[in-house]
Amino acid sequence: MKTLQLIARNRLALAGGIILILVVVLALITPLLPLKAPNATDPANKNAFFGESGYLLGSDHLGRDILSRLLWGTRVSLAIGFISAVIAAVVGAAIGIIAGYAGGRTDNLLMRAIDMIMGFPYILLALAIVAALGPGLMNALIAVAAVNVPFFARNIRGVTVGLAHKEFVDAARLAGMSHARIILFEILPNVVPVIVVAASTTVGWMILETAGLSFLGLGSQPPDSDLGSMLGLAKDSLISDPHVSYPPGLMILIIVMSINLLGDGIRDALDPRLRSGALSRPMAATTVERKAPAPEPRESGVLTLTDIETQFHVGKRVFKAVNEVSLHVAPGECLGLIGESGSGKSVTALSVMGLVASPPGVITGGSARYKDEELIGADYGKLRSLRGDRVAYIFQDPLATLHPLYKVGDQLIEAIKVHHGIGRGEARKRAIQLLKDVRIPNAESRIDTYPHEMSGGMRQRVGIAMALANDPDVIIADEPTTALDVTVQAQILSLLSDLRKSRGLAIIFITHDFGVVAQLCDRAAVMYAGRIVEEGTTDQILNNPRHPYTARLMACVPELGEGKRRLEAIPGLPPAVDKLPEGCAFADRCHKVQADCRSGEIPLAKVGNHRARCLHPVERQATEAAQ
Ligand SMILES: Nc1ncnc2c1ncn2[C@@H]1O[C@H](COP(=O)(O)OP(=O)(O)OP(=O)(O)O)[C@@H](O)[C@H]1O
Question: By the 8 A CB rule, do 291 and 365 touch?
Fold first, then answer.
């Protein structure tokens, strides 16, 4: 249903779909229409023009009614096109799945056979098949299906190879499922969308190929005809009576165009990445559509965010991922940004340098200043000169951010050379020093290794070295230690802490781990459903949380030596950011909720010694009262 809605939203696909339905309905009801017999000749009225002698679309060189032949011919062309597409899809997909799943010799054998078929130009191959089998519609169908099998086989094999070693397939093998069951129930459902997409975009092509064979006299045989053979006959009188070729030519154009438009729509609707805009060409910097002028910063720091608002516009839905977020960091300071998954931490961080993919991302308000320079809406040249140079990022998974085919040293050298016009030799020396700074042993030899040759911890150190390459003023670290084990995590944290002190780096550290915040951060901000709900010094947040969300989030964390404490999970889930409720977004999960929590804007206001977005904060504890 959702897929149909998505197709209908695409105007071109909708138009294609409607036209195709009309043509198919017309073809289906052709026997019921009061038409002349398609093969009845009328020698007295040969090549009649449109409307002449009672022939709406004229007559051909034997005086046969073109309208009647057109509709009967359309039936044949559509049927042959669809049937050959189904045969090619089924046979090709079966070969592809078996080759991709079995691998090894079977794969090699099947794919080399497919390669051999692909080695011939397809029309030559189709001609050869028809020549061997003899002319006729059935044989044309077999030929068209056969030449299209390789296209499906190769596509589906590629997808199956990717799936065959996925964890869920391994799990099915471990559960003792037979190969046939794994193929039918684990692999097939995952490749069906690819088969449908491939078929929908090639059906039009197959109709054209069948028409091509008939045009050459190898498909439908007289007196029957399809659109191709109608065109073939019309070509003989192309100079004297060109109008005879218009109806079949136009019908082929209409059918193929409508199928292709619909096919593109089906492909877009079935691919979830296309649906969310992830595969559309992202812009070099996030689109900025401010509703009001950039606000003046209320705090000062080397990086100051004021009322940042970032949304994702997907179709008619608006996902308010980040709302009125204000943050600042001073040189040498570390700010922790904490929150559950999906609370908007990464989108906030990426908004700073215009790195949120557009479409679908749009920054709809706010300001981000690096020193005195406004970054939101800055031209691309300026953003590029600052990205990685003055403001650098460290991401969670270095394997995803390091290029797998280049040595880590080359990637570091490139990062340095992008911003500094120094020679390769000097850049290499600097890269080795950077690797030493991040405590990689044997930096001189490690510089020539590939990312996959390093352990997770080492790779993350390279990620940090990349971020440090140009001696930035600010580092935004997005969960850089989440994928690492605790020992390596501790080493990376102490490394960042040392670098902060020795280089005066300002760090925004995104995490959902309070332990990390305690160890590294001076101040902390807690995010929930795209907003900052509490901010203060690390001590204030950790020892005296005032927002019920922060307090409950901390109650979920086990503490060493506190074995008897009950771990309280927070009931419910955060609200979807495209359907944020009025008032406090945490109200539905909050144990202190009251009627006034559910209406109006709740400001981030001073509560005790720090700030929280709450009308009924948690009681302050003795330590804060004493301060
Ligand atoms: N392309 C997109 N289309 C629609 N919504 C999106 C898109 N990308 C992110 N979002 C939404 O934006 C919100 C914020 O996501 P974000 O990645 O910033 O969360 P996070 O707090 O960093 O989570 P995590 O800890 O899992 O990285 C989420 O609700 C997410 O669903």
Answer: yes
C-beta contacts of 580-583 below 8 A and 24+ residues apart: 580/320, 580/529, 580/530
Closest-CA residue, ligand 1 atom 31, reads 342
The per-residue b/e assignment along 276-292, b for 16 or more CB within 10 angstroms, e otherwise, is bbeeeebeebbbbebee
**Chain CA centroid to CA 14, Å:** 23
Residues 449 and 590 in one domain: no
> Which of 343, 348, 481, 512 has most ligand 1 atoms within 8 Å of its beta carbon, as the pocket-test mutant?
343
Residue 387: beta bridge partners? 391
Rg of the chain over all Cα atoms, to the nearest angstrom? 33
* Calpha distance 434→154 (Å, rounded): 45
CA of 344 to the centre of ligand 1 (A): 6
pLDDT of residue 626: 47
CB atoms within 10 A of CB 303: 23
Q: According to the model, what pLDDT value does residue 566 have?
A: 65
Segments of the chain scoring below 50 in pLDDT: 624-627
Q: What is the structure's pLDDT at 230? A: 92
Ligand 1: which residues within 6 Å by Cβ?
276, 312, 314, 319, 321, 339, 341-347, 360, 512, 577
For residues 389 and 394, give the distance between their C-alpha atoms in angstroms, rounded to a whole number. Answer: 13
489 CB-side CA count, 13 A: 16
98 and 241 both lie in a single domain: yes
- One domain, residues 558 and 412: no
Give the strands of the sheet with 391-394, arranged side by side.
Answer: 391-394, 474-478, 506-511, 334-338, 523-528, 531-537, 610-612, 605-607
Total residues found in the chain within this entry: 627
In whole angstroms, what is the distance from residue 62 CA to residue 38 CA?
11
Residue type, 337: L
Where on the phi/psi map is residue 252: left (φ > 0), alpha (ψ -120 to 50), or beta? alpha
- pLDDT value for 558: 67
Q: What is the pLDDT of residues 32-81, one digit of tens each?
A: 999 989 988 888 888 889 988 888 899 988 999 999 999 999 999 999 99
Domain check: are 223 and 89 in the same one? yes
On whether both 103 and 245 belong to a single domain, the answer is: yes
Q: Please tell me whether residues 245 and 104 are part of one structural domain.
A: yes
Range(s) of the domain holding residue 546: 541-626
Mark whether 587 and 442 lie in a shared domain. Answer: no
Residue 31 located in a structural domain: no
ipTM above 0.90, yes or no: yes
Calculated CA dihedral for residues 185, 190, 193, 199, nearest 10 degrees:
-70
Would you list the DSSP string of 250-304?
HHHHHHHHHHHHHHHHHHHHH-HHHHTTTTS---SS-EE--SSPPPPPSS-SSEE
Rounded distance, CA 572 to CA 528, Å? Answer: 14
- Going from the Cα of 67 to the center of ligand 1, the distance in angstroms, rounded, reads 57
